[in-house]
């Protein structure tokens, strides 16, 4: 069995693809998996690090408006389709699974040209251009959000890494806090803006640090690999640990009682899978999908939400600090968040992909 996965650019496209790859390998250790990506995306680092083959396809960004760039798209897209089709021929692909991003459009069109069954997974409540196209070419459409407007879509959730869905935060809490140099018995706030960090979150949390310390709250603050701080909180107790990047987010989740974070699809899926309540601050730009990601969790009682423009140190002190100071409320919100989580999306989607591939072979 040969499966080709197309999803690149951001971690939101790549991580679900890699989680699916892991699930496929668990179901069938002999399965052949090839990932398609572009040279400009995070996949050039993430895919090889997870042990999977990566083949590059030229990136063809599609303009969202009529501009002079539009005239160059057909020629560049044709070249990318030919490259993707050549890769599928070489690996003898039985099925293509696309997750969106620049590489997905030529991959979908190449699979259609070669008669390779197409599977689309859309993680966001508002599908991107590539997956809107892919959904027109197949009956096999799966979503990570219950209300994603794609035809014939089936909700399965977002495939997540086993380290996340298998995490027992309660049993791992002491070990995780020790890992980061935190005390075992103090309420802990995790601040993270995702893989790229978030300046507004960083500034508000740092300004709230003295009040958090006075209240006995320790902080694990992941500022993002591209960000620096003019001044870190001075050493003291409780600890305020500042890191640029964490490659063991499972331990960061286990160490925390509450999170202050963006509300990307992967972040919401991971936090609900592990039952970690959060204050979500949607990105202030884009198409508003981050607000849609967090709204069901907030309605269920598993989190708070605040606009980026309204996030201040005072808001953190007035809204997050009372939660961290109330263990019963933390437990109630954790349970509410957990009820919104899906831990089986990787296996569910993997089984469906194998079924579709087998059916395609029989035609």
UniProtKB/TrEMBL annotation:
Binding site residues for UDP-N-acetyl-alpha-D-glucosamine: 10-12, 124, 161, 195, 290
Pfam family name, one: Glyco_tran_28_C
A single Gene Ontology CC term: plasma membrane
GO molecular function: UDP-N-acetyl-D-glucosamine:N-acetylmuramoyl-L-alanyl-D-glutamyl-meso-2,6-diaminopimelyl-D-alanyl-D-alanine-diphosphoundecaprenol 4-beta-N-acetylglucosaminlytransferase activity; undecaprenyldiphospho-muramoylpentapeptide beta-N-acetylglucosaminyltransferase activity
Pathway note: Cell wall biogenesis; peptidoglycan biosynthesis
Glycosyltransferase family 28 N-terminal domain: residues covered: 3-142
Source superkingdom: Bacteria
UniProt domain Glycosyl transferase family 28 C-terminal: residue ranges: 188-346
Keywords: Cell cycle, Cell division, Cell membrane, Cell shape, Cell wall biogenesis/degradation, Glycosyltransferase, Membrane, Peptidoglycan synthesis, Transferase
EC number: 2.4.1.227
Reactions the enzyme catalyzes: di-trans,octa-cis-undecaprenyl diphospho-N-acetyl-alpha-D-muramoyl-L-alanyl-D-glutamyl-meso-2,6-diaminopimeloyl-D-alanyl-D-alanine + UDP-N-acetyl-alpha-D-glucosamine = di-trans,octa-cis-undecaprenyl diphospho-[N-acetyl-alpha-D-glucosaminyl-(1->4)]-N-acetyl-alpha-D-muramoyl-L-alanyl-D-glutamyl-meso-2,6-diaminopimeloyl-D-alanyl-D-alanine + UDP + H(+)
The name this protein goes by in its record: UDP-N-acetylglucosamine--N-acetylmuramyl-(pentapeptide) pyrophosphoryl-undecaprenol N-acetylglucosamine transferase
Organism this protein belongs to: Streptosporangium canum
């Amino acid at each position: 069995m040969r499966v080709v996965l197309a999803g690149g650019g951001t971690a939101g496209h790549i991580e679900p693809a890699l989680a699916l790859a892991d699930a496929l390998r668990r179901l069938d250790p002999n399965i052949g998996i090839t990932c398609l990506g572009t040279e400009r995306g995070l996949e050039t680092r993430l895919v090889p690090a997870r042990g999977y083959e990566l083949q590059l396809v030229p990136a063809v960004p599609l303009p969202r408006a009529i501009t002079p760039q539009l005239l160059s798209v057909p020629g560049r897209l044709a070249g990318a389709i030919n490259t993707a089709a050549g890769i599928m021929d070489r690996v003898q692909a039985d099925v293509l699974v696309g997750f969106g991003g620049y590489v997905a459009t030529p991959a979908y069109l190449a699979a259609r040209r070669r008669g390779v069954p197409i599977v689309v997974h859309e993680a966001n409540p508002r599908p991107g251009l590539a997956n809107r196209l892919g959904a027109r070419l197949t009956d096999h459409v799966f979503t990570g959000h219950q209300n994603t407007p794609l035809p014939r879509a089936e909700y399965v959730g977002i495939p997540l890494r086993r380290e996340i869905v298998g995490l027992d935060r309660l049993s791992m809490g002491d070990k995780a806090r020790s890992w980061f140099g935190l005390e075992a018995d103090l309420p802990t706030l995790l601040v993270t803006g995702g893989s790229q960090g978030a300046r507004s979150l960083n500034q508000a949390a740092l300004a709230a640090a003295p009040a958090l310390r006075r209240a006995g709250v320790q902080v694990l603050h992941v500022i993002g690999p591209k960000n620096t701080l003019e001044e870190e909180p001075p050493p003291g107790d409780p600890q305020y640990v500042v890191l640029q990047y964490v490659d063991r987010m499972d331990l960061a989740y286990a160490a925390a009682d509450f999170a202050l974070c963006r509300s990307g699809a992967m972040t919401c899926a991971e936090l609900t899978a592990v039952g970690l309540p959060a204050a979500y601050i949607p990105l202030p730009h884009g198409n508003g999908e981050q607000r849609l990601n967090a709204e069901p969790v907030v309605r269920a009682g598993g989190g708070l939400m605040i606009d980026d423009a309204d996030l201040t140190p005072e808001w953190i002190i007035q809204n997050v600090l009372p939660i961290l100071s109330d263990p019963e409320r933390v437990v109630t919100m954790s349970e509410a968040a957990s009820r919104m989580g899906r831990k089986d999306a990787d296996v569910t989607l993997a089984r469906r992909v194998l079924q579709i591939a087998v059916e395609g072979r029989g035609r």
